[in-house]
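Troubleshooting entry. Yesterday's outputs looked truncated, so today I'm pasting the complete records for two proteins to confirm everything comes through intact. If either block looks cut off, that's the bug. Protein one:
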Amino acid sequence: MYIHDEHIKLPEDPDTVVWKYLDLSKLVDLLLNKQLFMSRSDKFEDQHEGTFSEPTYNEIKKLSADNPDFLKYYKKHREKVVISSWHLNEYESFAMWQIFTQKQEGLAIQSTIGRLQQSLHPEQSFRQYIGEVNYIDYKKEYIPFDNTFFPFLFKRKSFQYEREIRIITDVSGQAITIDNGLKIDVDLCQLIERIYIHPKSENWYKNLVIELVKRLGFDFGIEKSDLESEILI
């Protein structure tokens, strides 16, 4: 089930554009299985994922002085939360192409906030949020902890360039052991509006993507990157 909380930021316009940059193997996995891979929160490169800022940690430490299990819960909870990250931007991002794709090959899924919301199957038994990440100073600013999703919606200011929208799934109520991540069922026709192909890719790669998507039975719009447009002099 998809849950909305009034304290979680999210652009109000459902047509707000979001992107996911990925390689071809991850796209094939998504299309074949009709499931979105979500990474376990404590497996991200940023070791601060799902942790608290210093002011919040100090408060929790005081609260857990007589109840050490209170603090242990938050540490273990990271193992039961999985995340799918999307980039909030009206246009393609050259930086995102550079960071998330390699060797002049890669793809970008274009979607919208509304499409993300509609793509999640309501019958799934675990709780899910979609929210915009807040970028704060972890030495000075406070992260609320009255909702167990909140720690996963804050990151350090040095990651501001990511402009991240997250689908967050909490499976702590389920008898599920997560290794590196979890796949959740999604409606691909809702999730994917268009697929963009890496701006420096060669023609054979573009043709491969087009043929592959077609053979898998999908008719998504496939576009060459807007960054590939011809120079006008």
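Protein two, checking that the full record survives here as well:
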Amino acid sequence: MKKGLFLGFVVLLIGLLAACGGSDEAEGLLEDDKLTVGVTAGPHEEILEKVAELASEDGITIEPVVFSDYVMPNVALSEGEIDMNSFQTEPFFDHMNEERGLELIKVADTVTFPMGMYSEKVTDLKELEDGASIGLPNDPTNGGRALLLFEQAGLITIEEGLGVNASINDIAENPNNFEFIELDPAQIPRQLGEVDAAAINSNFALEAGLVPGEDSIFIEQDSQFVNLIAVREESKDDEVVQQFIDLYQSDEVKQFIDENFEGSVVPGW
């Protein structure tokens, strides 16, 4: 009888230990007491630091993980190295999901960065000579976005209906025989002197000390490329995800953006 009671106690103890062991899993994304968020350097990082400041008042620790390119933040999120990311437009996000078979989902809008054209050699588009070299991002969606920018500027026309999916092979008219050179988007500010002009994403322009509204020779009109917050599929209903969204889309963060970026970054929610 005593032996039976002892065995029953052992079984009960194992069950309790198993239940305790599963409690971390129940805590979701905050199981290690912090939320890791992937961003690119520059404005995304600065805005996240403001969100982290607000989150700390609610007892949530946010740890920024800063990346220097557009690919790794999604790879790291997919592989569970970070909890969420905030750095990309929806067309780029959709392309990455499809191309790499990622199971990431968008949970909220963040900010818009108007793309601009910059030059160290000319101050006006009219000064670009025939055959001038023009740089643009080498990733598919930002490259297509740059081509739409060039079309807005009246430099080229692209095949109808392609939109952001256009590539340099889809240029229908190039009357000034411009040479389009695809470059790593993060490196374009450093390589600006090697081309006559270039399209640069505003986050990289700002990181390089350029002010889109002042230093660009042409800037995107009525940009619809809103950035987003992404998480893994299994995390979308985690309570801390909605807490993060509420903090990001708060009046305090909007005021921070308006005061610190003066129109170079625009709240998109």
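Both blocks look complete. Sanity check on protein two: Residues 148 and 173 are 13 Å apart (CA to CA).
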